């Protein structure tokens, strides 16, 4: 492997990591803040991708997709949340049902199982054009446009969430996830907080779907398959390196870093030719499992050392 | 003023009915501290859950300060009724800091909008209130509540419950899970907080001594009805032994 290919794959992973980081943040919001996994994310991601691609295909400006895709995601999150809180159906089942239904909705939106739009209608096109005009090689300019768009989106998402979680409203969301009984005893309408949280996390995921679809130059009905595990892998990798006393802002930033590390690892294994791309999903599962196990192994290791010290 | 009128609660699982509260009426004047005792199944916890809004009574009415609160949900009723429970884990959010826990309780009954959850002056106020107990809790504001011991949690929960003076404070055996020395300390703090702000309080206790020593009035529940209701000198003259014989009768 030459240094050049290596560097390119790192650039590529940085762009991918940044564009996928909002998904990991969506997983964080449900799994860590609300302490309940939300399976809607798979469906929402594909739905956001389908909405964005269909709109671009129809000639819409990419900025409108950045509004419509999160709204679509929010609607999906709202559906799951209402099924969960009002009909008292288990959260996992609610997400599963909505994801199932979204599959058909996405098919309907796209009018088929795949759709693509002209490259120069994508959000990356104007930035790439500008970079090329500055004399950067077209291929590098493309990779940099992913990084720039991903960075701006991620900063916006993290800033909004950091602000939200610092407010009285956000604190009541965190309390609802942490100790629902206590939150209710302190006058928090916990159902409304669960609904808000799911709406926001799915809006973010819908946005990520819209951006990733443009990066992959098209959407298909299976776009969302596996993103939940990719998000989970990024989240747990990020958590391993997060400092123990990390504030909310730190935690969010390290999740993004986790996403970058995840994509770097995958691309290094693939680019170096150790495994063919067919093995990506298996690698993802192994990485996620590994990252989940590390805290436990660390604990066991430390325990042993203490015993030896005795 | 708290007025419970003809409160009945029947648990019905479709096969058999369990009549836990039998048209129980109770009126508590503003600022009174009532202790409640009774054997298991006497209906103490059901009574609490009915007052706090966790359970809907089968019939009857609950009026707090002239307002019927029966139709209000648990979270809506929290603005006027504060609770501290037996399990020290139930009163705090372990992953939130002590300051965040207190801020959450401080905005009880207020609109939780997009204003900052904790302002600088709140921190100073929380610090001042925690320092009153001499437990060093004021230095732990930024620490997660999961680091607190059971006794410390109950103290923080008590303070949280009274940070905004509630119309009614419900204490459900809140010292039962603590060791005797800490339990005594927490009871002392309870007395101080309740008396300072003259909070109308109902406390369930398994400890006869506590039930006699604390509060202005003692109520014994038996089979879902009030079996004994004493206050003033008559209450002071009671002895635990005497209460136990009443229990058995």
Compute the number of helices of chain A: 12
Beta content of chain B: 25-35%
Q: Detail the poorly predicted runs of chain A.
A: none
Named CATH architecture of chain A: Orthogonal Bundle
Our measurement of the CA-to-CA distance between the termini of chain A, rounded to an integer number of angstroms, reads: 48 Å
Walk me through this protein's architecture:
The complex is a heterodimer of chains A (310) and B (249). Chain A is globular and about 60 Å long. Chain A has 12 helices and 2 strands; from the N terminus they run ααααβαααααβααα. The N and C termini of chain A lie far apart (48 Å). The longest helix of chain A is centred in the N-terminal third of the chain and has 31 residues, at 3-33. Chain A has one domain (3-309): ABC transporter involved in vitamin B12 uptake, BtuC. Chain A has helices at 3-33, 40-57, 62-85, 91-110, 124-133, 138-166, 168-178, 180-185, 190-215, 227-241, 248-271, 280-309; strands spanning 114-115, 219-220. By secondary structure, chain B is α/β, with parallel strands linked by helices. Helices cover 35% and strands 25% of the residues of chain B. Chain B has helices spanning 44-52, 74-77, 98-106, 120-131, 150-163, 180-197, 208-213, 232-236, 240-248; strands at residues 2-12, 17-28, 33-38, 59-64, 67-68, 81-84, 168-172, 201-204, 217-222, 225-231. In chain B, the strands form 2 sheets. A 6-stranded mixed sheet of chain B has the order 6-7-8-3-9-10, with helices on both faces. Chain B has a 4-stranded antiparallel sheet with strand order 2-1-4-5, covered by helices on one side. The longest helix of chain B is centred in the last third of the chain and has 18 residues, at 180-197. The interface between A and B is medium-sized, with 22 and 33 residues.
